[in-house]
Amino acid sequence: QVQLVESGGGLVQAGGSLRLSCAASGIIFSIKLDWYRQATGKQRELVATITSGGSTNYADSVKGRFTISRDNAKNTVYLQMNSLKPEDTAVYYCHTTMFGMNYWGKGTLVTVSS
After folding, report:
1. Tens digit of each residue's pLDDT (9 = 90 or more) over 56-84
2. Which of 35, 39, 57, 61 pairs as cysteine with 90 (C-beta 3.0–4.6 A)?
């Protein structure tokens, strides 16, 4: 059974930092993993991607501030978020696709106060 479990969200002031974690089980971990986010009243958007080879890609809105990484030994993917802005406030979701199926975690809430 595939499980993606996010943690690390919380309330932080603008300019602060948070590190999100996503613990994966039941998957072939050496596959592409993503972080998405969804703000209230907005569509879910892709934030960052990391491939099996460690290549990364970011949304323009977070480039230079967020860093995605993975620890294959721990089956965990991270999202380090620095210089947070109020517009980063959202529920952040871990996502992967395996054998044509999409898998999502339940999300972790990040709130950035101004």
Report:
1. 999 999 999 999 999 988 999 999 999 99
2. 39
Answer for the pair 80, 35: CB distance below 8 angstroms, yes or no: no
The Cα 31–Cα 84 span in angstroms is 28
Task: Choose among 3, 17, 56: nearest CA to 34.
Answer: 56
pLDDT band at 98 (very low <50, low <70, confident <90, very high): confident
Contact of 102 with 95, CB cutoff 8 Å: yes
Nearest CA among 72, 112, 113, 75 for reference residue 92: 112
Q: Check the CA dihedral 33-77-82-9 and report its sign.
A: positive
